[in-house]
Amino acid sequence: MRVARLTLFLVAAISLSAQGLINRRAPSFSLPDSALQQHDILDYRGSWLLLDFMKTDCLHCKQLSTKLEAVKKKYGPKVAVLSIVITPPETQATVAKYVAETKITTPIVFDLSQVAIAYFKATPQNSGFDTPHLFAISPTGMIVKDWSQITAESPTFLSELDQLIAGSPAKK
Q1: Is 6 a domain residue?
Q2: E-strand stretches of the chain
Q3: pLDDT classification of 130: cutoffs 50, 70, 90
Q4: Which is it for the CA torsion 47, 170, 23, 17, positive or negative?
Q5: Cis link prior to 155 (omega < 30° from 0)?
Q6: Residue 114 above 60 pLDDT?
Q7: Strand, helix or coil at 141?
Q8: Which contacts (CB < 8 Å, 24+ apart) does range 142-150 have?
Q9: Does residue 85 sit within a domain?
Q10: What is the CA radius of gyration of the chain?
Q11: pLDDT tens digits, one per residue of 22-69
Q12: Which of helix, strand or coil describes residue 165?
């Protein structure tokens, strides 16, 4: 009986922890890409923004980047994709190699971890996150979905994304 209660408590705690990332305003930021062009999250208001925290040496990240590129093409101006890497260890060279391998056009911006800290509510006890990690941010700037350790092969990912985007107005 004690084990059952402990298990129920842990499941509830994990569930509540995950809920803490959704239904709140996306923390604001402006970050540079490898050409030193700034990407401000406020520039994406009015469109769905898929915010992808990734690593260039991650196989699942590469597969997801390709899938997100297709999503961006499918929805046009209604959806934007922005990838974030942490530097160090990522550099302009690692990002250039990644772009050459994946052929993506999605901007990849460099974070010194301040943005990641805000999105993942980092503390000394909660100091890391798994990649790829994808947030869906509504046209009004609210985090409405959080996919942790998502893979491009996830059977529900595209249908969940389609449900989120369906019925929202396109950016003018």
Answers
A1: no
A2: 24-25, 30-32, 38-40, 48-53, 79-86, 108-111, 133-137, 142-148
A3: confident
A4: negative
A5: no
A6: yes
A7: coil
A8: 142/23, 142/24, 142/25, 142/26, 143/21, 143/22, 143/23, 143/24, 143/25, 143/26, 144/22, 144/23, 145/22, 146/18, 146/21, 146/22, 148/18, 149/60, 150/60, 150/64
A9: yes
A10: 17
A11: 889 999 999 999 999 999 999 999 999 999 999 999 999 999 999 999
A12: helix
- Residue 110's domain spans which residues? 23-165
CATH number at residue 87: 3.40.30.10
Q: How far, in Å, are 26, 115, 116 from residue 106 at the CA level?
A: 19, 18, 19
pTM, 2 dp: 0.82
Report the domain count for the chain: 1
Look at residue 172 and tell me if it is in a domain.
no
Residue 59 to residues 52, 56, 97, 113, 139: CA-CA distances in angstroms? 14, 8, 14, 22, 29
